[in-house]
Amino acid sequence: MNLSDVKDAFPILKQLENGQPLVYLDSGATAQTPVSVIDTIARYYREENANVHRGVYGLSERATDAYEGARSKVRRFLNAASDKEIIFVRGTTEAINLVAQTWGRRHLKAGDEVVITEMEHHSNIVPWQLLREELGIKLVVVPMTDDGEIRLADFEACLTSKTQLVSVVHMSNALGTINPVADMVQAAKKVGAKVLLDGAQAVPHMSVDVRALDCDFYAFSGHKLYGPTGIGVLYGKEALLDAMPPYQAGGDMIYSVTFDKTEYNVLPYKFEAGTPNISGAIGLGAAIDFVESIGLDTIAAYEHELLTYATRQLQTIDGLRIIGTAPNKGGVISFIVEGTHPHDMATLMDQDGIALRASHHCAMPVMQHFDVPATLRASFGVYNTHEDIDRLVAAVEEARTMLV
Ligand SMILES: Cc1ncc(COP(=O)(O)O)c(CN[C@@H](CS)C(=O)O)c1O
């Protein structure tokens, strides 16, 4: 699909917001859904709906094929070695909690160190704090610079012989910073640590190859990749997943059950208890088809060009301060306007049809670092245009004039 045709693929972007054409700049929270994904999910419920892995009748077998076909698409999308390494979860948050509650509780003990960074999303902070309360592990936080960058030397300085796990964000949702995760993985391996990468914001914006990165776990959410909500993926190296205890217990994750003993199912089903989000997985498969029809490298280049244009245009506004100026960024711009509160700005900008986030973005430590209560955040999708940026800039100017 050509980028010039992309916007037409999103029905929601045709609507007016407060009498103005909608300019959606909150893809970092959730991306919009192309008609191909909507139609795929509708067709599943119209023609294929049945429970998976259980029926010996055609409809269930077709639903199972569609569900497992989506898993294979994810495998190829991440360049994982096996479908067994692709676990469907609700989203990035559940993926990280699954690792914390299974691998973490099994392998970590008092005094072990888990390394995260200052720019993490709360879903990659709090699960480890829960383990700190339960097991007495030590949480080591890599500081970021005032540009919102993690310097590799600062990361390496946090690694010790006690480091058991490094869990870091690939691309910051609050700043847009893209971290040097390949180098971070190599440095972590030198001290024998496992590595989990939070790919929630990276996967929609760039090509991800988990084998090239050599990470042990990789997590992302379907709804940020133009797919439905309620579906996400945990990638894990097969040997690690095989050795981990189940996360949740019930149907489908078992091989046999007696009151004396239960044998668990094989991968990936050991981690998929109960009826899965069948339509969500199939919809995620359609979302992968959509982004691959454009090309991740094409998407990355286009969004980088949008980011450059938006940065240049926003910087012309008096009193506007961009939060997060790392040299390597993805399609996210956080900013504040002196003398205003982000919530007031966003409320006024909504009157101009502009939808963008005003929040701490579930990254309160980032806000503390920059000494701001919140930021305005414009986060881009494949459907955004230069005209959207011009509308954003005009709305910021107008709101600023009304508030300052
Ligand atoms: C880097 C990162 N890591 C984890 C998550 C959680 O994704 P879930 O799909 O909600 O489980 C998110 C979701 N960030 C949204 C909601 S706060 C944002 O507006 O930035 C994220 O950006």
Automatic annotation (TrEMBL):
The keyword 4Fe-4S does not apply. The keyword Ubl conjugation does not apply. Pfam families: Aminotran_5. Keywords: Pyridoxal phosphate, Transferase. One of its GO terms (molecular function) is cysteine desulfurase activity. It catalyses: (sulfur carrier)-H + L-cysteine = (sulfur carrier)-SH + L-alanine. Its EC number is 2.8.1.7. Gene3D superfamilies: Aspartate Aminotransferase, domain 1, Type I PLP-dependent aspartate aminotransferase-like (Major domain). Residues 23-392 form the Aminotransferase class V domain. Transmembrane segments: none annotated. GO terms for biological process: cysteine metabolic process. Its cofactor is pyridoxal 5'-phosphate. Catalyzes the removal of elemental sulfur and selenium atoms from L-cysteine, L-cystine, L-selenocysteine, and L-selenocystine to produce L-alanine. Belongs to the class-V pyridoxal-phosphate-dependent aminotransferase family. Csd subfamily. NCBIfam families: sufS. This is Cysteine desulfurase.
